[in-house]
Amino acid sequence: MQMPRWKTVGGTLLRVAAVWAVSTLTMLALAGILPDFRLKSGDGDTATQIAVTAASGAGAFGVLSALVWPLLVRALLLMPALVLGLLVFVLNGSMLLIALSVNPDGRGAAEPETAVVVAAVMSAASSATSTFLTVRDDDAYRRRLARLAVRRRRRLGEDGGSDEPPGTVFLQLDGVGHAVLREALRERENRPPVMPTVAGWLQSTHKVTPWRTDWSSQTGASQLGILHGSNEDVPAFRWYEKKSGEVMVSNRPTSAAVLQRRAAARAGHDGLLTVDGASRGNLFTGGADQLALVLSVAARRGKHNRSRSGYFAYFADPANATRTAVSFLAEVVREICQSTRAKLRRETPRVKRGGLYPFIRAFATVVERDVVVTAVMGDILSGRTAIYADLVAYDEVAHHSGPRSRDARQVLARLDRSIELIAKVAEHAPRDYRIVLLSDHGQSPGETFAGAYGLTLEDLVRAGCGLPVSRRAGRTPSGAEAREAGRAALHRPEKPGVDGDGWCGGREASAGAGGAGSAGGAGDTAVSDPIVLASGNLGLISFPDVPGRMSREQIDARHPALLRTLADHPGVGFVLVRSEAHGAVVLGADGAEHRLDTGEVFGASPLTVFGPGAESAVRRTAHFRNTPDIMVNSAYDPARGTVHAFEGQIGSHGGLGGEQGHPFLLWPAELTPPVAAGEELVGAERVHQVLRRWLEEADGPQVPEKEATAAPVEVAAAEVPAAPAAPEASAAQAPAAAEVPAEPRPAKASDAARTMQDSRWDGAPAAPFTVVSRVVPNKTR
């Protein structure tokens, strides 16, 4: 039964009056507490005059918040998100000063720093009151949902969304491995699970299974494969491309745009979310039109860049802005306290967590989480068909605190509450929703390579090349061994020690050992220094002055001691190179060698300790076009499950070894299983096929295939021959550059299913898959 209009208007007015009254009382209380904030004139006022001043100030502040704040946020959208979050307090305080200045009697004044505090407290109080009244008023909440449903029906047509199939929400818990999830869902010592909401799902409505990543176990490769169906030629989180002379970094907007364009060209479609989809907080769009905090379009400017629209939708409400800003500062304080406690307790392993890191962590765990969760709830209430969102909080904290640390468990608990909130909102959506949880990789613990051995991977590479290294690295056992190995390989006399500059091998043998030069080019000599990059426990070494991929024979001729120095180091698990005679070759300690293309093994295979699937994963990456001259995977201790990150991380991912390669997939039981019984789900591209099948099972959106053309693809030099071609485009237009004429996008998901019926792949549950074959420079997502 519809409520009379007078009751609707009356209820709204009562809520406004209640919020106004609470704001007035809050202002009065603060005026009595804070010495630099007053609500009376110098001559003194009666209690009535002070109350009127407070009421007028609170009313003016509320009007400014409602009318001016959204305009301010929209004007500041081009600013970095971190700066925008910090400006929340200043803007709020400025509006309070304006509200006090418009008082006709001239009463009320505050110092600028006091105004910031007063505005923050008033916004929080009014937000809490408004939220409480709305929650208690079920009719108001239902009316809001009804309005959203009416808008949806108007957009879709007369039948609206009443007969639409269920929508699907994919929530990616970045970096949460299958084993960590299982532990978070179990009761421990009579304590409830860390994630009670997800634990309840697993006991009733959902199922969970692990899946295995590719060799590059990081968000760039995994999410690209999941959303766009291809992660071909993505060897790591960052790598050097000799053709362009640039370092590609997965979380750099320009690089992400190029990777998305290449993946779309290979897969032949724009992505998983092409039809009525929304992409929130991801590296890539997935083909969605609705975007918020999507990195691959962040470099765009103008009306076509909607990646920052999520900020406006969230921060347009000053109460949201204040609440998030307060939580942001609380998280900064929490991180400082936790890192101080770890230092005082001398916990090991441990990495430095100072500088800007507390603010970076707060952005990932508070600002990005709040904006993404709010955007997802808006998508659900709008009835979108497919939504994919990435929550990065756990991954950020686990890198610096450890995958099983107390800090990381607290983040998991907060993520569980976010999942619960999304599920409750889905109960009021204009269509049914299925929620799928998944992760893109796990994390493996362990002391850093530098912490364990006293030198970085770059130090080790330079020592093996006969290039100078720091005094500190040269004096370590690893540095000394590499130095002597280099001298022996170069037939040079032994020196009694390291000179003042820390030379290892000397520059005078530049023709054989590699001369001086910049890391990005040949410098003033014919031979340049190697470029050494890290992606978790995966290292990549390239020689930029040599066109194309160097062979093992070329490397040995140029740097005779390098490969053995790397392969024999106790912190290195194996080394991948290309041989002119034998193809892809994996080198291990004590002369072990595994020739991947021929299957020949000499000695014990270095890949055995990394478990089943390691050989096929390495073989696949070995034939990528942008695979570097040398790839190094750190050592793995299967008894402890530890690896050595080549970055400053005690929880890492990026290569092979341990839980980093075993994320999870948790799905509603009514969907068909990801793979047949006894099968293993391997590779991000296979996960894409599973998610695509689940969308199709609900008669939901299909992924329109692109029509192949004769135009060459920009990256087609060594790619899959059957990949559909697309015209070349600039990086700024990357997501759309690979498009070719395709079927018009259907207005409804059910129509899309009928239109694309011929292009479906067999989604029968018993059909097995055939497996072929943040803001921070050091952060690996």
UniProtKB/TrEMBL annotation:
Q: Where is this region: Disordered?
A: 472-524, 724-766
Per its UniProt record, what SUPFAM superfamilies does this chain match? Alkaline phosphatase-like (SSF53649)
Which residues constitute the signal peptide according to the record? none
What Gene3D superfamilies does its record include? Alkaline Phosphatase, subunit A
Compositional bias (Gly residues) at which positions? 512-523
Q: Which Pfam families match?
A: Phage_holin_4_2 (PF04020), Phosphodiest (PF01663)
Membrane-crossing ranges are 12-34, 46-69, 76-102
- Ranges of compositional bias, category Low complexity: 724-741
Answer whether the UniProt record assigns the keyword Membrane to this protein.
Answer: yes
Coiled coil (residue ranges): none
The protein's UniProt keywords, in alphabetical order, are: Membrane, Transmembrane, Transmembrane helix
Which InterPro entries has this protein been placed in?
A: Alkaline_phosphatase_core_sf, Phage_holin_4_2, Phosphodiest/P_Trfase
**Compositionally biased intervals (Basic and acidic residues):** 481-498
| Identification of the protein by name | Phage holin family protein
